[in-house]
Amino acid sequence: NPVGTTLEISTGNFAAGSSSSGAVTTLVISNLIANTAYTINARSVNYSTSASNSVLAAATATYANVPPAFTVLTPADVFLSSVTVSWGANGNPLTPPTSYQVQASTDLNFGVYSGSETFALSVTTATLSANTSYYFRARAYNRGGGQSAYNTVIATYTLSNSPAAIAYSVYNTSISVTLGSNNNPAGTTISITTGSFESSASSAGVQSGNTTLNLTNLIPNTVYTVKARALNYNNIASSQTTVVTTTTLTNSIVVNGFNVYTTSVNILIGSNGNPDGTQVMVSTGVGGHYDVARTSVGRTSGNQTSLTIFNLSTNTFYGLQAGNLTTGGSTNTAVVTNSTYTLSVSPGVTSFVMYNTSASVSLDLNTNPVGTTLEISTGNFAAGSSS
User: Fold this and answer.
1) Beta bridge partner(s), residue 325
2) Tell me: domain 164-247, CATH 2.60.120.10, correct?
3) Residue 202: per-residue pLDDT
4) What's the rounded Cα separation, in Å, for the pair 216 and 194?
5) Domain 75-157 is in which class?
């Protein structure tokens, strides 16, 4: 054909929308669909607009478009060991579908990575490590071979595992808890709480193997539920682990004083920081045994609580002790006194005889024990007027 002959190419029947023509030897068909197979035919047209037979110029496919930027990650996309990333088609066809490769790596330069292939517009990468930074990128495969460039890299941290409860110890005003990493990396923030992880009721630290945290300023003899959690590097909390529901120990018993009467003893117990309702008891004896007949049991109320032991014998020797109930049913014991006597009661007068210079009086012990000293006096029981 001479120079100036009109040449045409077409992906269809040489209609205007699918063709390109001109008196040149290089023609371009635009507005094709990305990553789509096309058959391109060519023909020439003479000066009378009669077309020649068409010939096959090429059977090929367009390149795939680069996947667009990933959809912004939400909490619903990030898990302990997996992350779901999504993207748009960016003009790549869904029928037949375009295939994609998503790469995940802990290295920004993707020196080492794991890849996932999919025909969908999202993929969930599995077997990731907890609380670890991962980078993601995606590319599309061309139907004719090769692949597109990568889209923009996105990064996030996986969630942390809830820490493992290894051991705990309970004291009067504190609880100590040892937590295991549970596959979280060193440097993961962990915390324990008796509340809702507010700072006033919590203790936090950085995980390094088995790590011990302490809750302080607790109230003695009080029930607490201790929970633990971890934060990933995006400050997203893990699920909570209940370590223990327990009661702090009771502070020791404090005796403020006691009063002795004829058949009873009143003992004053100080709270010593224990809350109202702490069980306290007093009894005769000093051996720490309270399962005896002469015992009084009560509960603290305010700074000082009064307990009374009744039905004691008059003018009788007693040791006295006090105690409070601790966690587990044991008792803190304090000796009130190793030895004291109840008061004696006045004797009964059975008869008397008067003489010139003397008087004889017969007395009854009146519940006082045998051996009780009895006295009579015409005055104030001074030696010169008494017997």
Assistant:
1) 331
2) no
3) 97
4) 10
5) mainly beta
